[in-house]
Design a protein that fits this description.
The structure is a single chain. With about 425 residues, this protein is mainly beta. The chain has a single domain (about 70-80, about 95-390), classed as Pectate Lyase C-like (3 Solenoid), CATH 2.160.20. About 5% of the residues lie in helices and about 35% in strands. It has helices at about 50-60, 295-300, 385-390; strands at about 45-50, 65-70, 75, 80-85, 90-95, 100-105, 115-120, 130-135, 140-145, 150-160, 165-170, 180-185, 185-190, 205-210, 220, 225, 240-245, 245-250, 250-255, 255-260, 260-265, 275, 280, 285, 305, 315, 320, 330, 340, 345, 350, 360, 370-375, 380. The strands form 4 sheets. It has a 20-stranded parallel beta sheet that branches. The chain has a 10-stranded parallel beta sheet with strand order 4-7-9-11-14-17-21-25-28-31. It starts with about 45 loop residues before the first strand and ends in a 36-residue tail after the last helix. Residues about 1-25 have low confidence and may be disordered.
């Protein structure tokens, strides 16, 4: 866990010491599922369940190379976390959406939760969790033990976790869960994060994907919504995506972040090296205007931070802070090999400690009216904006845009996450 007041950084939205006035706060409904491509039908031994008793039984009796297929319905977790301990196990909803199956915990703030600390606890190789919703758990929607490997979280909506939604624990520095995938998933707080302290971790100790020491993770095509914590929280700057503690070569791409404290952090501490390598590309990040109090803005830093993460590339992201933070992208500590190119932002791209990094093709003067629909996080450039902006040179590590469309060759490339092709 990172310190209660780990450095100061970034965004958030709120006033005084009350909950934020996010455009997405105060909504008790969940967000719609993302348009995830259908997974192939299971070729494992398949166990089909249609109620929570059968689900607990199937999990208790799991064997390697098995798919547990959930029929549509609501499954109230009331006796324990679902523990995956056999290799090559898939637990998924039958239908190819996230909302026909809902696993419901006892409540995000319910101390009388029996043994339902999390939705899933994974201690195996090649686990897949897919096509379902996990809501209202005290700690984590999905917790992954340091001895596990290659988990895949696909088309999962996670709502109201007391701490992080996806937590990958380490064995020690640089030794953790490798080769994980989180894609086409939603992590959100419809009414804001918990304001209670969970297990003496401090108030506001939350996050989306928190990876300790893992190598080779890919976090793509997800949405993170309304992670803001009040000004009187112990934790003010929790990243929605945090990879650290000796992690390496993470890819964070094609995600949308709306009203989060920090969006993406590769590294957090000066520990030689907290993270190394990897790419942050094609992400869209927006904060509601006026979300930060003045004191919050005064102590903020950047929405994307690369702190002690040499060789990291930050490419083609679109960031609209709306004056909530002084900076958009910030590098710090060891910066050897760091590159920040072809991003379009509305706040400075900067460094701490006078560290050098490569910077090319960035635009730091973006305005809300340049984009299609900022309120819902659609930061694709309007056609007239594209025509008014100088194109940039294509980067070899950003061949495709947020929609999977290939960028053209040469110097006819749009800045930011989306490539808009305009007919001549």
């Amino acid at each position: 866990m990172f310190p209660a007041k780990s450095c100061f950084c970034l965004i958030v939205f709120l006033a005084g010491t009350t909950l934020a006035t996010s455009a997405f706060a105060g909504r008790s409904e969940y967000s719609a599922c993302l348009p995830a491509p259908a997974l192939p039908l299971p070729n494992h031994v398949t166990v089909t369940v249609s109620n929570v008793a059968a689900l607990y039984k199937a999990v208790a009796e799991q064997q390697p190379n098995t798919t547990i297929l959930l029929e549509p319905g609501r499954y109230r977790l009331s006796s324990s976390t679902l523990a995956v301990t056999a290799d090559n196990v898939t637990i998924r909803g039958r239908e190819d959406n996230c909302d026909s199956v809902e696993l419901i915990g006892p409540g995000m703030d319910n101390r009388k939760r029996k043994n339902v600390d999390a939705g899933f606890w994974i201690n195996a190789a090649n686990t897949t969790i897919a096509n379902l919703t996990i809501s209202d758990v005290y700690f984590h929607s999905i917790q992954i033990n340091g001895t596990a490997s290659a988990p895949r979280i696909y088309n999962v909506r996670m709502v109201n976790s007391g701490q992080q939604f996806v937590k990958a624990n380490p064995l020690d520095f640089g030794n953790g869960v490798d080769n994980g995938i989180v894609e086409y998933s939603i992590m959100e707080y419809p009414d804001g994060p918990s304001r209670k302290d969970h297990a003496d971790a401090g108030t506001g100790y939350t996050g989306g994907v928190d990876i300790h020491a893992g190598k080779g993770w890919r976090i793509s095509n997800n949405e993170f919504r309304n992670f803001h914590t009040p000004d009187n929280s112990d934790h003010l700057w929790n990243p929605a995506v945090l990879v650290w503690n000796g992690a390496e070569n993470t890819i964070t791409e094609n995600n949308v972040f709306i009203d989060v404290n920090r969006a993406i952090a590769y590294g957090l501490s000066d520990t030689k090296h907290d993270h190394r390598g990897g790419v942050i590309r094609n992400n869209m990040i927006i904060m509601t205007p006026g979300l930060y109090s003045k004191q919050r803005t005064a102590s903020a830093d950047g929405v994307i931070i690369v702190w002690d993460s040499p060789d990291t590339k930050v490419l083609h992201n679109t960031v609209l802070t709306n004056s909530n933070t002084p900076n958009s992208i910030e590098v710090r500590f060891e910066t050897l090999g760091v590159e920040v190119s072809n991003n379009i932002v509305d706040a400075p791209i900067t460094h701490r400690d006078n560290k050098f990094f490569l910077s090319n093709g960035n635009i730091e003067s973006a305005k809300p009216n340049w984009f299609v629909d900022p309120v819902i996080g659609n930061l694709r450039l309007k056609e007239n904006t594209v025509q008014a902006l100088k194109p940039v040179k294509k980067h070899r590590l950003a061949e495709q845009d947020i929609d999977g469309e290939y960028r053209p060759f040469g110097i006819k490339v749009n800045v930011g996450a989306d490539q808009l092709t305009i007919a001549n």
